[in-house]
């Protein structure tokens, strides 16, 4: 494995390139939200079909994320990183060039595949380039800060591009960045791969889990037009269940599984991943409905919508930093429960929106409150996901929590958006005015999102043992089932 000299300045140029790539991958999860109404009008998506613009990306990203990291270890990290850039850039170009809904969805799925190659490979390259522990910590800090800002910048940039140019530029902005990164990579990043005997790639596992999830989401979305109990819907759901069951069998029997099921023997891993799965569903539901509400009901421009999202993005970054302090004082379990509870309250607040909504009350207030809950929850979940696993499994555990974030977002959006759209249609058929029916559907969706966040909080309370920490040590607050002694002498 070729390494950059510890004294070479080239490693910092490599970090800048890798962090920029991760920024674009994260940005693409949120930049599209502000452009959704414009895409709907231009391409002709239905209200319930519009969610595929988001879900096609999330599902392929999450489904192939772990496989992308394995391919990089086997084939060569720099080679896969360049390939991921090209796939991501060309898919971004294709999204903006097509005027057919099906092709937009297919191109978004290809974007997700490119992201699945890029994200784990870039993080692995950071770890291999920075061999000095202190420098590696500094590099990881830069990585986390840049990646964390991607979501906040995405909504603002999406508003600017859609408002000043057109919705296509939300995707085309990726093209020059991806092509430039692919060209620069051989100049600043050395090739590396695992020197141990190469494991087999669990391609069958990746295909079955991704196919099962796609079929499941498609069954939910299409049920609105063909009926929830129709043969079409039931057949799709049955096929999805069979594929997901096959995935579990494959993972249990494989010598080199995509997902190490043994990790779930750790209580903190199981709790953290299920909490992430449920909570991510509520987060993307909130962003999806808020973007549509501001533009379709309040009449905001895309730029105004992007600016309205900015306080929430900044708040998540700020409270993510505060969460680190609270973890040591309250423990992971209490911090996570608090974050999820606050997020649930904020979503219930969103459910009070009206057709003549006030920005401060209906948008800003609940958005800032949500940023408090999300900032605490995401950091606590990440801490819980790796707190009990051995050091050699920390990468697997981190990858697993990222997969569940993408999959939870997609599944939650499919379920909640479909139910909310059905609610809106029923009201519209009853001669209720369009804006009022639309707003009522959003309110219904927010209530479902609040219930999901509350369910995640309840699960953490029930599943995490109420044990008391023996004393204030370096481990205090790291485990999800251990409380800090600052909790008034008893567990919470």
How would you describe this protein?
This protein has 492 residues and is mainly alpha-helical. It has 15 helices and 2 strands. Strands 1-2 form a two-stranded parallel sheet. Helix 1 crosses helix 10, helix 2 (52-75) packs antiparallel against helix 3 and helix 14 (394-429) packs antiparallel against helix 15 (434-463). It is globular.
Secondary structure topology:
Blueprint: H1 10-44, H2 52-75, H3 77-97, H4 101-129, H5 133-164, H6 169-172, H7 174-188, H8 203-226, H9 231-253, H10 267-297, H11 302-330, H12 332-350, H13 359-386, H14 394-429, H15 434-463, E1 467-468, E2 482-483
Parallel strand pairs: 1-2
Q: Enumerate the spans where pLDDT stays under 50 for 5 or more consecutive residues.
A: 467-492
**Number of DSSP-assigned strands:** 2
Number of helices, counting only DSSP H or I runs of 4 residues or more: 15
End-to-end Cα distance, whole Å, is 49 Å
Strand order of the largest sheet: 1-2
* Helix vs. strand class: mainly alpha
Order of helices and strands: HHHHHHHHHHHHHHHEE
What percent strand?
Answer: under 5%
Radius of gyration: 22 Å
Overall pLDDT score: 80
Please bin the fraction of helical residues.
over 70%
Shape by Cα distribution: globular
Largest sheet, strands/sense/barrel = 2 strands, parallel
Please sum up the structure shown.
The chain is mostly helical and 492 residues long.
Supply the key terms:
492 residues, two-stranded parallel sheet, 2 strands, single chain
